[in-house]
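Format notes (please read before filing issues)

Several people have asked whether sequences and C-alpha cells are stored in separate files. They are not. Every record keeps both together, in the order shown below: the sequence lines, then the C-alpha cell lines. Line labels are part of the format and must not be stripped during preprocessing.
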Amino acid sequence: MVELLSPGGNLEKIKFAIHYGADAVYCALKKFGLRSQASNLTKGDYLEALDFVHIEGKKLYLTLNAYLFDRDFEELFEIVDFLNEYPPDGVIVSDLGVLNVVYKNTDIPIHISTQANVTNSYAANFLKDFNVKRIVLARELTLEDIRRFKKGTDLELEAFIHGAMCMAYSGRCFLSAYLTGRSANKGDCTQSCRWKYTVIEHKRPNMPMDVEEHKEGTFIFNSYDMCALPILPQLIESGVSSLKIEGRMKSVYYVSVVTSVYRDALNTIIEGGDFKSMIPYYMKELESVSHRPYSLGFYLGQPKQYLKSSGYIRNCKFCGVVVDYSDGMAKIQVRDRIERGHYEIILPNLKRVSLNLDCLYDEDGNAKFYGNPNEFVYIRLPEKVEELSLLRKCHESNSGEVEVQKAVL
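Then the structure lines:
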C-alpha cells in the first residue's frame, strides 16, 4: 500500500494533514531541519504531535537533514538522546556525519533525504549497512530511472509528487548563502533564485541593464512547481513506496487541500475507479492553493525549468476554520476577513458545501457585517459539517493551467 506523506511545518499543520488523509507526516524540531523559517516544533509540540499521530494509527518522520559543522554536533547529540527516549517512526538525514551519529546511537529507522541526491541503487545498497530503510529519491530521476533503481534494491523509495522545485541539483544550492549569508543547506534559504536579475557593468554601477528574457524581467533561475497528479498510476507502478508533498512553510489551507486531493486520487486508483475522468476536478482543486504554474518535474524527461515571474497564483482566499457545529450554526475561527458573499466549506473527503453568506453573528447572536482575523464568528449552514472543515472564497482561475495534464492525457 503506497503511503501519502504530508508536510508538518507546525503542530496545527500536522493535525490538519492527518485529518485530511495523510498516512504520515514529516516535521522538524527547532534545529537542523531544512526549513528553519517554518514554525517547526518545540520538544513539547513534538511529544504532542507524536502522541496524536500514533493515536490516529499514522506515522511521524523527523527531519535532521541540514548539513552541519563540527560546532553543531554537541547539540545534535542532545537531540539524539531525546529521540532515543521518544523515537519517531524515522529520521530523515542528508549529512554523512549526522547519519553516522544517528546510526551508532539509536535504533531509529533512517531515511536518506533528497538533499543527499541518491540517484542509483548502488548507493542505496551501500547505505543499507547504516540502518537506512528508505531513500528519498533525487528529484532529477525520470520514471524509467526509478523503475531501474527499484529493480536493484529492496529499500523503500520515496518520491516528491507536489510542491516547489529548486533550480539547483537536488536542492544543493549556495546562491542564498553567497548573496545573503543565509545557507539553504542549513535550512535558511532566502529563495534568491526567485529574484529579478539585471546585469551591471563594473565601470557603470549606476546603469543596470535588463537581460530582457521577458518584458516582465529576468528570472532565469526561477523554476515551476511540481504537480505529478496526472502520472500517479505510473509512479505507483514504478515501485515507489511513499509519495511526498512539499510545503512545510505553506499554509494550513495548502496542506489540507493538497493532502485531500491526493488522498482521494490514490483511493480512486487503488480501488480501480475512473481516475482519468477525475483529473480535471483534481487539478481545479490543486489550482485553488497558492502555487506557481505546474510541471511534471523530471518524471517524463527534461521539465520546463524557469518562469517569467516569481509571483504566486492565488485563486482562492482561505478565510476560516470550523471549530464547532451545533443546530445549523458553525463557529468559525477567522483567518482572513469574512464578509457577505459567496463562499465554500471544504470537508476532508473533498466534499464542498456552497453557501451565500448574507449574515454573520457574534457569540451572543447579534448580526455582524464582517469578521476579522483571530475573531470567532457564527454562520448558518445548509447542512452539517465536521470540525476542521475550511471556509474559502474563490474566483475563477484564468491561468489556463491544464497544460500539465494535457501532457499525459
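For reference, the curators noted about this record: The two ends are 25 Å apart (CA to CA). The first strand starts at residue 3 and ends at 7.
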